[in-house]
# Entry
Amino acid sequence: MENYYRLLGINETSSPYEIKKAFRERAKQLHPDIAGNAATGEMRRLLTAYEVLSNPDRRHEYDRAFSRIFKKGDFDYRTFLQEHDDPASQAKLMIFDLMHLEEERALEIWRRQGGLGFPLQKYLDQEDWMDCTFLLAEELEKRQCYYEAFMLLVDIVREERRRPYFRHFIIEVEAVLKELVRLRLKSSLDEKTYILCMENLLDLGFSSRDEARWLRSMAESLVKLGELKSAQGVFREALRRDPRLPNTARLRRKLQV
# Structure
């Protein structure tokens, strides 16, 4: 559990006005024009802290948990969780480590619990699950585990469509996902796995322009697999969604479309 008061530079008795003022001052320091893109993760943490502490009900619940974890003298929350091998405790330990910059420990727990097969949603509430999953995806991408990062980001976008939590921040999540697909995903996967990934994207409700490009890429993979008839159908669908789709000349010749 992260200390939101310390993150904002305030204390537990701060008024709503002081919370808002502290958030604005810190947010200015983390603006991309000043701190660069490297501050994106810190800004997300700052937003989470502000959203919790500026909501009276959420602040009350946070303060109760904060008091249990940070004000019990010798009580070590991480040690407490480590001593419990059940999946729920391990899920909480994972997010605790991620929030305290112990990314390697968190990834080790995640892999030990089954990686993509570990049902984090079952053991964390939506907010913790969304935060934890995005942090995991970031760390996996840094380690060139592109497929796993992709699948986690897809899960986040799908959940956001179902029940919004990130709201304005989902634009950043989608940008990370699209950049991963554009620059890294295809070269790291076999053609069949890549096609399955594109099918996942097409199920999320992105723009017709984005979907047309992913369909074009799917068609290219199908051509490599020798599945020309399927490639023709997928390519026609790409052109239907974006008649001005660029970089199609070679594919048109191959598929006679």
In short: Residues 189-257 form one domain.
